[in-house]
Design a protein that fits this description.
The structure is a homodimer of 161-residue chains. By secondary structure, chain A is mainly alpha-helical. Helix content of chain A is 63%, strand content 8%. The radius of gyration of chain A is 18 Å and the shape is globular. Chain A starts with 6 loop residues before the first helix and ends in a 14-residue tail after the last helix. The structure holds a DNA duplex (30 and 30 nucleotides).
DNA sequence: CGCGATTAGTTGTTGCTACAACCTAGCTCG
DNA sequence: CGAGCTAGGTTGTAGCAACAACTAATCGCG
């Protein structure tokens, strides 16, 4: 448990830090350009598109998207204005709000998914060998154990993007 | 070259996407809390602290930090206001601006580095075996080749954080 | 059954980032 | 040598995210 990182650790960290900076920017800019959506917007719509009845409670959606409720609330508001989803009070629990994908929202996901997946392929998956893909899975999993110890959001790890 | 990802690829991507969301947030919040600095602010100061005379031209600093000049300009302006660095015209090229770390800036880096490195250790390095650290280096490198094909910013990969 | 604590969500403000417009200094080539 | 082009930066604006304050509904427990 030294304070500093040794050379090999630095090499890994510096590269990871660069990926952390560049990859989200690349994903965002492709989706913005081709679908007028941020990556987070897309992710929200994608999660809804896979949910039963294309509907989820705000809290559930927040967990799936790794976001705070406050952030999600703002985003959902904008997406609702654009007609991509709609909100309605949850019948079982009057505190809760449900978000449901509209037809237009479904279509938006269908249209934009191929381009997004292609970007993920080009920049990540196709850059790696199958062994590296497996290694990456384990590495990311180990990091997530530290970042999210109680696996509160474990659900997401089973799901598609 | 299919359109979709297979199960193993999805597993890797979903986890990486979660890391991309959570890790920067974790780094930012530690530095904000303990040093009133964003991770990007810290990185800027750290790069200057290692440069000859603690001075760099804006363009060079932008490359090292993987940022646009516009973004850097705003950040440097704020850091200058806080007295952590200073700007002055470059004597050799009158178009250019140099940024130099002040004493206060140096001290800020010295104070905050251990806490930051500890966070990187806790969440990343110490979560991985030495083999995984090596694997991560290669994986991140492969991804960076796609994101940054001409290696315009290759300099950074040699440096410490 | 009623009062405090918790859960669910919204909204306002502030700060950072992206994008585009702009300006000045140096370079290049007829 | 000067007209246009490129390089190096700055600034303004608009949009998204973090944080904190707030409301309303429900739970829990004496």
């Amino acid at each position: 448990m030294d304070t500093w990182l040794d050379e090999k650790q630095k090499a890994a960290w510096v590269r990871l830090a660069a990926v952390l900076e560049l990859l989200p920017a690349a994903l965002d800019s492709q989706l913005r350009r081709d679908a007028q959506l941020t990556h987070f917007d897309y992710f929200v719509l994608a999660m809804l598109s896979e949910a039963p009845n294309r509907t989820l409670r705000m809290t559930a959606l927040a967990e799936l998207t790794t976001a705070t409720l406050a952030r999600l609330s703002h985003v959902v508001q904008r997406l609702e204005t654009r007609g991509l989803l709609e909100r309605f009070p949850c019948p079982e629990d009057k505190r809760a709000t449900n978000a449901r994908l509209t037809g237009a929202g479904w279509q938006k996901v269908a249209e934009s998914a191929p381009g997004h997946v292609a970007t993920v392929r080009e920049n990540v998956i196709d850059a790696l060998s199958p062994e590296q893909v497996a290694q990456l899975t384990d590495i990311a999993d180990a990091i997530l154990h530290r970042l999210d110890p109680d696996r509160a959001r474990a659900a997401i790890y089973e799901r598609y993007d």
